[in-house]
Every structure is written in C-alpha cells, then in structure tokens.
Amino acid sequence: MQLVGSADRVYSVEATERLDDDIELVRRIGMGDRPSYEKFYTRYSALVFSTAYQVLNNQIDAEDVTQSVMFMIWEKSPMYDATRGRPSTWIVAMTRNKAIDRLRSVQRRMRLHERVQNEVKPEDFIEFRQASDELDANEKGKIVRSAVMKLNKEQREVIEMAYFSGLTQQEIAARLSEPLGTVKARIRRGMLRLKKIVGPVL
C-alpha cells in the first residue's frame, strides 16, 4: 500500500509539474517565443490530429485541421486563461470546434455537388449546338457571341471554355482551380441564361 501511495504521489507531482510547464509554455508563446511554440507543437500536435481524426475520419482533413489549430494556438495564446482549464483541454476544445466546422463545410460541398450533378445535363450543350447548327455559321457565331457577352464574367468564362474550347467540366474546374460543383453550377446558370436570350432566334 505504501508503494502504491508513493507512486500516486510521484504521478501527482509529475502531473502538476507538466501542467505548470504547459501553462508557462502558453504564456511564453503569447509573448512570441518560438522555441516554446515548437516545444508545445511537438508535445500536442499528435493529440490535435487524433482529436480531429475522430470527428472527420479523414487523414487529409485531419492534417489540415491540425495545422489550422496549431496556428490558432500561436495567435490565441495571449487570450488563454489558466483559471478556465488546462492547456490540453483548451486545445482539444479548439480542435473539436474546428473539425466540426470542417465537417460541415465538406458536407455542404457534397450536397452542392450532388444537386448540380442532377441539374446539369449534357443534353443542354447538345440541344444548344444542334439548334444553332441550323443557322448560317457566321450568323450563328454573331448571335451566340453576342449572347455570351451578356452573361456575367464567371458564367461567360465557363461557357466559352465548354462551348468554344470544347473543354470538359473536369478540365474547366482544374484550369480555374475551382470545385467541380461550382463549375457545374455556373455552366447551368449560364446555359439557362443563354436559352432565354437566343432561344427565340435559334
């Protein structure tokens, strides 16, 4: 029993020293001390990653959240209040909040992609081309170009790439560094606008 009690006391002392050291590290980080930040990063980055991974279940997303949270520690350390909790509790809470935000963002992008996937149809381009092919080439070109110029910049850009340059939606997304769902949404809105403008003529 004495041995167990002695071990417990040793563990308690070590835990207290570790907590004091953590608090001092955060205080120094708040003063811009980079060595303290590097030490804190080494000590807690694995905990931040595992916490983020539990929420996201995706390594790349968890790594991104880890980097974001560790940067937040550098920025927010001056606001840390030791009376409100341990540094480890503080960073776990930040990590969970950041991971949940990331998860919601991913889910929103997936819903947008699915919605646009259902709305944008290849027949839109085929129908547009077939109708315009019935006109003289020069006349058709003038009408289509005039209509395209009436689109907003984002819609005009993707329509020109898809209709005049013959790029696929995936190629357009890669060239513009935009999500595929965003490109599809712009094409869909642009096509609807073009149909309203040139439909009666074509």
Describe the global form: rod-shaped
What share of the residues does DSSP label as strand, in percent?
under 5%
CATH arch. level architecture of the largest domain = Orthogonal Bundle
Helix/strand-derived category reads: mainly alpha
CA-CA gap between termini: 94 Å
CATH fold-level topology of the largest domain: Rna Polymerase Sigma Factor, Chain: A
Order of helices and strands: HHHHHHHHH
Which bin fits the share of residues in helices? over 70%
CATH superfamily of the largest domain: RNA polymerase sigma factor, region 2, helix turn helix motif
Could you explain the architecture of this structure?
The chain has 202 residues and is mostly helical. It has helices at residues 2-30, 34-56, 59-76, 87-119, 122-132, 137-149, 153-164, 169-176, 180-198. The chain has 2 domains: 2-107, RNA polymerase sigma factor, region 2, helix turn helix motif (Rna Polymerase Sigma Factor, Chain: A, Orthogonal Bundle); 120-198, Arc Repressor Mutant, subunit A, CATH 1.10.10.10. The longest helix is centred in the middle third of the chain and has 33 residues, at 87-119. The mean pLDDT is 77.
Protein traits:
Arc Repressor Mutant, subunit A; mainly alpha; 202 residues; Rna Polymerase Sigma Factor, Chain: A; 2 domains
What's the layout of helices and strands?
Blueprint: H1 2-30, H2 34-56, H3 59-76, H4 87-119, H5 122-132, H6 137-149, H7 153-164, H8 169-176, H9 180-198
Write a concise synopsis of the structure shown.
The chain is mainly alpha-helical. It has nine helices and no strands.
